[in-house]
Every structure is written in structure tokens, then in C-alpha cells.
Amino acid sequence: MRQTKQNPGQLNSMGYAPIPGSIAEFRGATKLFGEVVAADHIDLAIFKGEFLSFLGPSGCGKTTALRMLAGFETPSRGDVLIDGDRVNDMPPHRRPVNMVFQHYALFPHLNVFDNIAYGLRQRRPRPGASEIATKVERTLETVRLPGYGKRRIWEMSGGQQQRVALARALVNEPKLLLLDEPMAALDRKLRREMQIELQTLQRQLGITFVLVTHDQEEALSMSDRICLMRGGRIVQIGSPRSLYDEPASRYVADFVGKSNFFEGRLSGRSAGIGSVETRSGMLLSGRTVGDFAEGQTVAVSIRPEQCLLSQSEPGEAAAGATRIKVRIRNRIFLGEHTEYLVESGGMGEFLVHVSRQADAMSGAFEAGEEAWASWPREAAIVLENDATSEPPKKGNEHVEEK
Amino acid sequence: MRPQARNWLLLAPAGAWFLFMLVLPLVVVLVFSFGERGPAGGYVPAFTLEQYLNLPARWTAFKNTLTLAPVGTMLALLIAYPLAYFLAVRANPKWRMMLLILVIVPFWTSILIRSYAWIFILGGRGIPSLLAMVGLENVRLINTPFAVLTGIIYGYLPLMVFPIYVSLERLDKRLLEASADLGSPPWRSFMQVTLPLSIPGVATGCMLVFILLMGEFLIPAMLGGGKVFFVGNALVDLFLQSRNWAYGSAVAVALVAIMLLTVSLYMRFVRRFSDARDDVSLM
């Protein structure tokens, strides 16, 4: 997202023109830890009131980006802006942002009330006791812990501690709420509940949330925009839907959701449709994303839930649809859908997800049976084949994040 | 073997030690304290409160112990805390182990020899002679409370440094980040987070040093030169020189009683202050 150059707003006293509507910005922000590049020239505007997620595997630079916003890391090059002011040298305690830490970092020597009141009590002039009490009680209600003020931290369950951590940050009415893998320590069911609650809370309060997570499901379900990172760089920014449906490369399609990839050479292209010849000589066609030269090695991505399985050969469908004969290798029941691992002579093994309804209609397939797999042309996307397993180029080695 | 029988067997050595080395000697001392001195010294069975009524005769020893032990503990704390803080928080981890070893290096030599060294340093040819060169004549250091305090702090500093070091080192650094994030400048974070969370270490260190100081006799003997003496010195004198075991026992019982009282008061104070925060696991 290089919006930095368009639409320059009013210059502020420091000579920076913030992007209209933005609450924070990275401008070519780079962070080096010795030889290691933890964040590599990040350009990003975070808009007022949005829920933005930094998503990526560990060491992709997402935590470093968040810590640059909080003030725990200073960019080695480039700038960080909050509310139009360059804050590179502003210490954390002066920044109008608050953070929910990964393991909450609640003060063990203070009770719930004093933990939440901590931020208010640091203000100068210090607010009165009754004002503090009112705000703390109100925030406890917001996070659905009314009357818990007197409790000790260690008397609270993991989920409750998480709410206290959230309340401790929210009570200060920060311009940005930073969340560093806040759900990592919760079990799956509780995590799901908290995700919904957090999202509701964000809509309700209108505070800008910036979340760091390695959990693509979490990012997809909560964010307005996802910033997918790799090796310190931003790979793609967009709505969850656009990342899922219009991935910029194989890496994105692989990280966000499940997908099948078929490598091949681009043999022809016209009007956004590319033809790809796989190694075994099969021809696949799909939407092209990005600029490719003919003959270039690309990857065709097909989401498992966009494949259909049928017992007999499907009739002639829309132009460009793919139909192939496969053998069922394995079947895994996953509750809401069934995952089949199928194999075709020309394409190798791939996954097909069949919904329960479809499974009930066509009847479940057994391992060893033959079937037809098909998908419409729009389901196939021709992508840049940036390998996912191999480490990014030198200088961007994975950094162990804190 | 039944688990219960095994538990008792495992406890036996410690129990026997406790009984024969602690309870029994204390009972003996208690019994002796109500007796009388034999004609040639030692102990003659009797039941009299005479020894206890005689305690005020050793008032100076009690007064010295009860002033210099707490003052020495406080001074050791004031010096040890910044040192422990530096070692645990500021020192380069590469050098930390080395620096910690340096703190205990003095323990490798006998306190007797080290006290002799202090006699020379504080004696006429030591610091006073240097002061004389800048015009401060006739400064007397050796055989003063100052000399005894110097020796105390020097000798017991490591005992104070280590517990504080451990509590500071254990402190979750993310709590300081959280404090900064919530708007607290570094010095206030220290007062509001670091200091309260290191209280258990401070309490342990003070307790260790204070209890040992209450029974100290070597340092006052060496650096106090008979002018600044502790209860410990009085005991050595009563048991080994004048062989008045009954009176010595009464003095010992009084010392133990004072120690029990001060330590239990102190414990109550610390517990109320730190409010069971030792039980907290830093999530």
C-alpha cells in the first residue's frame, strides 16, 4: 500500500503530511537487530476506527511492527507517525497508545482494580479518586467483569485475566489499541468467544485496533484489513475476503486458508485468463493475478472447497471448466465438511472439501473408489510461484520474535 | 513399605538433628539460666531468678547489639540494593556470572584474616595517616562503632545482595514494558513495580543479616577492640573467661527471646506489606 505519495494532507509543524483519515503510519520503517532485518521498509497507513491485523509466521516482522508503534523499538531507518506526529524518538510512556500483551503482563502485586487504574494514575495532573473509580467500574462492565475489582490477579482464570488486560488498556481511551497475540494462551472455544467479543467491542468503542497474530482464522474473522507479512516485508494488504479470493501470490494463498497448488509453465494468456501447462502436460486455465511472461513458471491455486466431486463425468459446463478423473486416497470427517485426498495421474494428489449437504446428495466416497473432480475456471487462480517452504532471501532470515 | 512409614524414615535424620542439636541445647541453656555459678565456675543446680535480675549489668552489650545490628542491616541494604539491581538488570549478561562470583570471592578467605586486614586499613597507619596528610589530624577509626559497622557491612553484604539479586532477576521485564506503556516514566515504574516486587528478596536479605548480626562476636572483638562489644562478646566472656555458666545462660536466653520477638514482629510487618505476593506466579 503506497498511498504515501497520493493525497498529501496538510503539513504539520514537523513537516510531515499525514494521509487523511490515518491515525498511524509507517514510512519506510526498517528495523535492524544487528545483521538481521526484522522489518524491511514498511509503508503502511492505519486508518481511524479500523481493525487491522498483522498476520504472518513467527519471525515475519509483525511483532516488530507493533513494538515500533508502542515505542519499544525505534526504527533504524524511516519513520513512524502517530496522529500525524513523528514519534520515532518518543518513549512508550508518552505515546497515546496502549497494548494488550501476549501473556497479559498484569501486575501481580496489584488487584484487578489497581491494575486497571494504573494508567489513569500515571496521568499528570492525576485524576481524582472518584473519577478513577467511575472509569474503572465502567470499563469492568465493558469487559463483562463487573464487581471483580477487589479480586487478586491469580484468582482469575485465563479468560478473565485477558479481559483485565483489555480493560487496563481500554480505560485510557488510547488512539490505538495494540494487541500482541492476545488469544494465544486461551483454549480454542474460549478464543472463539473472545474473538467475537473483541470485534463487537471494537465496533462499539470505535477505537482503532491493531492486532498481531499468526492465526489466519483469527485474522480473517476479526479484521477489516489484513496486512500479511513475510521476512520483514508486507506481502499483501487488503480485506480478509480479498486476501482469500485475490491472493497476490502463492505464499498468500497458502498462508490464508487451505489451497491446492499445481506448478506449470504459462503457455498462453488473454483477457485476464491464463493457460498453464503442468509438468505432466495437462492444461489448466484460470484467472491471472499479476504480470507474467509466457513461459514463466507459475502456480495454479484451487481452494479445496471450490472443487466438486461426482460419481459420473459431469456434463459440459461453462467454458474452461476443468474435469479430471481421480481416485479417492483418503477421507477425513471434519464435522462441517469432509476432506478427501484424491489423486489423478496427471496432477498428483490434492484436497477436495465436500460439504455435508453435497456429501449426503451424492453419497460419501470410499477410499479406492474412482470419481470425477471438477471446478469452474473462476475457481482457479494463476499466481506467482513464490515458494513457501524455502526461506526468504538473505538478510531477511527469520527472526525469533519475543 | 507403606508410604507413611517411608515418610517418617525420610524425616528421621532431620528430626534427630533438630532434636539433638537445637531443642536439647536450648533446654539445657534454659535450665542452666535458673541455676547458680559453682565456687570454681561452671554450674550448680538451683532454682533462682538471680541471674535474670542481674541482666541490666550487661546493658551496654545489649544496647550495642540492638543498635548496631539494625543499623548495620539497614546500611547493608542501602548498599546492596543498587548493587543487586545493577547485577540483575543493568549488567551485561556476558559478565553477570563473573560479577556475581566477585561478590562472593571474599568468602573464600576466613573472616578472621579479612578482619585483620581491616585493622590495618582503619588503624593508625591506614586511612587516618592518609587523612593526616590532608590536614585532618587525630582521626580515630579503629575501635569505634564506625569500625564495627564497616566490618559488619563488609562481611555481610553478599548475604544481602544475593536474595535481592534473585528477586530482581526473576522479575518479569514485560511488567516494566506494561508500566511504560500505561504512561509511567522509568523512575516511577521502578517505584511502582520493581521495588514492590523485590520486597520478598529485601525481607529475606534483611532477616538473614539481622539474625546473624545479633549473634556476632568476631567483628566487634577485632574492630571494636573491647570498646564496642556485642552480646556475643559478653557470652564468650561469661562462658570461657569468668566461667559463669548460669549467668551466661540467662544472657543467652534473653538474646534468643529478643530475637524471637523482633523477628516475629518484622515478619508480620513484611507479610502485611507484601500481602502474600510471593505466591503469585508471574503469568
From TrEMBL, chain A:
EC main group: translocase
Encoding gene, per UniProt annotation: potA
Reactions it catalyzes: ATP + H2O + polyamine-[polyamine-binding protein]Side 1 = ADP + phosphate + polyamineSide 2 + [polyamine-binding protein]Side 1
InterPro entries in UniProt: AAA+_ATPase, ABC_SmlMolc_Importer, ABC_transporter-like_ATP-bd, ABC_transporter-like_CS, Mo/tungstate-bd_C_term_dom, P-loop_NTPase, PotA-like, Transp-assoc_OB_typ2
Family statement drawn from the similarity comment of this UniProt entry: Belongs to the ABC transporter superfamily. Spermidine/putrescine importer (TC 3.A.1.11.1) family.
Complexes and interactors: The complex is composed of two ATP-binding proteins (PotA), two transmembrane proteins (PotB and PotC) and a solute-binding protein (PotD).
Function description: Part of the ABC transporter complex PotABCD involved in spermidine/putrescine import. Responsible for energy coupling to the transport system.
Protein's name according to its UniProt entry: Spermidine/putrescine import ATP-binding protein PotA
GO MF terms, alphabetically ordered: ABC-type polyamine transporter activity; ATP binding; ATP hydrolysis activity
UniProtKB/TrEMBL annotation, chain B:
Membrane topology type: Multi-pass membrane protein
GO-annotated biological processes: transmembrane transport
Transmembrane segments: 7-34, 68-87, 99-121, 141-166, 197-225, 245-267
Superkingdom classification of source: Bacteria
One GO cellular component term noted in the UniProt record for this chain: plasma membrane
Limits of the ABC transmembrane type-1 domain: 62-268
Compartments (UniProt record): Cell membrane
Keyword Cell wall biogenesis/degradation among UniProt keywords: no
The UniProt record lists the keyword Transmembrane: yes
Primary location class: membrane
This protein's UniProt keywords: Cell membrane, Membrane, Transmembrane, Transmembrane helix, Transport
A Pfam family annotated for this UniProt entry: BPD_transp_1
InterPro entries linked: MetI-like, MetI-like_sf
Family classification: Belongs to the binding-protein-dependent transport system permease family. CysTW subfamily.
Name recorded for this polypeptide: ABC-type spermidine/putrescine transport system permease subunit I
Organism: Hoeflea marina
